[in-house]
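Researcher: I'd like a structural prediction for the single chain below. Treat it as a standalone chain; there are no partners to consider.
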Amino acid sequence: MRGLLLRLFFVVALPALLLAGWWLASDDSTDVFWPPLRTILKTFPDVWTAERLRDDVVPSILRLTGGYAIAALVGVVVGTVIGSYRRVRAVCEPVLEFLRAVPPPVLVPVIMLFAGIGNTSKVLVITAGCVWPILLNTVEGVRAVDPVMAETARSYGIRGPARLRHVVLRSASPQIFAGLRQALSIGIILMVISEMFAASSGIGFTIVQFQRSFAIPDMWTGILVLGLLGFLLSVVFQLVERRVLAWYHGLRASARRSP
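Model: Treating it as a single chain, here is the predicted structure.
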């Protein structure tokens, strides 16, 4: 119980300290573009009503979920194939390095040319950015499978889907989750960027509309919503990761306790 309270304190302490610093630094501000935090917080409930949450936040979350899910599926499947076969890896690595070097925001106009300006293009933009950390971490995780473990599985006749599930993916799962974590933050950024181009809903669209109409406190409330969304998604991800990788965290804890 004490450990849980201490951990909760560390989680809350830094955000509280930053908010306090923001409050004090902006308290006497008369700058139109840097309103006091108290003004922003007072504006927040008037701006982000249940209707706006339904019309703007929910579509953003659905786009992010769709793009992230597609990227996770493609990244893990393709990464497993590339990581498992040396010749495939030798052929694909130059192409992967080239494609990875292209910034995803640059692809927004290109994707819109082929997919239009609807939800499909926004999901594809998120997918195009999220897939790389997942794919590359999966490749490295599969490559790093312990040869002794792989040979033992072969000796016991564990092949095919059973070997893939219980040996390859299980061994690579910590690295895969590292890629999924990186992809989540990239996905949130691309969600906002994609909604700033030819959109009619979404958090990014709303923030741009506030900025263009010089509703600066309203714009800052949108930035706060993005921060809260990122924090909540991070918490959910950590809960899922700890549940799926409970065996891995248990091994690490045992290793730390051993003399």
